Each structure stands twice: as structure tokens, then as C-alpha cells.
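Annotated sample (chain length 93).
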Amino acid sequence: MSYAPLPQPPAGLLRNGIGTLKAAMKKAEIAKRMARRSGVSEAEAADRLDRVVHQILSKLREGKEAPLPGFGKFAGGTDGKVNFQREVEGRHE
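Output written by the structure step:
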């Protein structure tokens, strides 16, 4: 059985993996939320976010997967694009 592909979401929206559309967050919004939750300044949160992104990109450039425990992993595809594989709930690899 095959299914028709889902239509692409409008610009600025992402699918959350179960068909629901959700607004994409920008770096400043993520840093602000991280700062609030961790009790650090927005600048420190932005620096931490930059380090994580840099580590992910470095792994991908080396041809390795970049895991995000509790979320899934980034992996380079054969087409040169980056793919994200969500972690199955209750299963940690």
C-alpha cells in the first residue's frame, strides 16, 4: 500500500512529525526560551546554542551521525541533504 506524499507546509511552518503544523522558531526565540528555563543570560544561551549547532555540523561534515538524545539524530543523506530521524518513544539508541 502506498500513500500520497503530504503537501509542503507554508513558508515558516514545519511539520512536527505527526501531520500537525507548527511555527518554526528562530535562534533568538530558542535562546530566549533556553535562558528562561536554565537561568542564564540570553547571550549565554545563544552561545550554548551556537556550540551545539557547531558540534552537529562538525559531525555531519565528518560523515557521522549527530545524535540529540531524547529527540533523534541528524544524518547526512546520499543526496547531500541532512535528514532528521525522530527517536521512537521509549527507545534510545
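Annotation: The helical segments are 27-38, 42-61.
Annotation: Residues 27-86 form a domain with the HU Protein; Chain A fold (CATH 4.10.520.10).
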